[in-house]
Amino acid sequence: MGLGFVVGVFGVLILAHAAYSTIQYRGLLKITEEEFSGPPMNVVAELLLGLVFCMWAGLTVPGKFLSILPDSEENRIVSLPANLDFMSFNHRGKVFPKELDVKLKL
Amino acid sequence: MAGHNDSSAVEKKSSDLSNDIPTFNAENLQSNMKTIYYSRTFLSIIGGVIAGILGFTGLTGFILYFLIMAITSAGLIAKSGFSIHSYFDSWNRVVLDGFFSGLMSFVLFWTFAYDIVHIF
């Protein structure tokens, strides 16, 4: 969370700076009375850098993917107590001979 | 990685046996969907700001949106370690979900940034 979040804030700051320098560039164009054809090169570079940082942050900050397979390693322990209400110990299995229990324990 | 591949193979086999009824952990699927939704919304906002600063108007801005969503999808696939089926039930979840809601926030922030930078 920490590192990705800091990178995201840094990317947003870079984008803000790019916006600010574009505003300044437009002011300059107004003075020299030229038409705006496209943003200057350093703004494009800043935008690309900010996009890369924000992409990295946007992919890492929201959290890891969790496996949806019922037999994967992280789901095995969690899914056991989900049926706890339906466990029944008072069933006909108690009339079975006790040697079977010993075998099961092995 | 190898474990995931193994378990996906086992899952495929067991779903074949039980007449193609998919079984998966719905809670984790929902959490994955939420993660994807966050990523897409944030990146469409960032894409809108970028399109506004660059001064795009008309079709080029939408082309930029498609490009950014394609990069996002590639990033999400890379994040899941190229084994989509152990985290999602279909490809559409990764590639298409949240596309149009992201387009709305993209257009909002596109016009917002364009107004701030180029008009005022």
3D structure, described in words:
By secondary structure, chain A is mainly alpha-helical. Chain A folds into two domains: 2-60; 73-105, no CATH class. Chain A has four helices and no strands. Chain A has helices at 2-32, 41-60, 73-78, 98-105. In chain A, helix 1 (2-32) runs antiparallel to helix 2 (41-60). Chain A starts with a helix and ends with a helix. The model of chain A has no long low-confidence stretch (mean pLDDT 82). Chain B has one domain. Chain B starts with a helix and ends with a helix. With 120 residues, chain B is mainly α. The longest helix of chain B has 29 residues, at 26-54. Residues 1-18 of chain B have low confidence and may be disordered. Chain B is 77% helix and 0% strand. Chains A and B meet through helix 1 and helix 2 of A and helix 1, helix 2, helix 3 and helix 5 of B.
Low-confidence stretches of chain B: 1-18
Structural classification of chain B: mainly alpha
The helix-strand sequence of chain B is HHHHH
Radius of gyration of chain A: 31 Å
Record keyword descriptors for this entry:
heterodimer; A: 106 residues; mainly alpha; 2 domains; rod-shaped; B: 120 residues; membrane (chain B); endoplasmic reticulum (chain B); Emc6 (chain B); transmembrane (chain B); ER membrane protein complex subunit 6 (chain B)
Write the layout of secondary structure elements.
The complex is a heterodimer of chains A (106) and B (120).
Chain A: H1 2-32, H2 41-60, H3 73-78, H4 98-105
Helix pairs in contact in A: 1-2
Chain B: H1 2-17, H2 26-54, H3 59-79, H4 91-95, H5 99-119
Helix pairs in contact in B: 2-3, 2-5
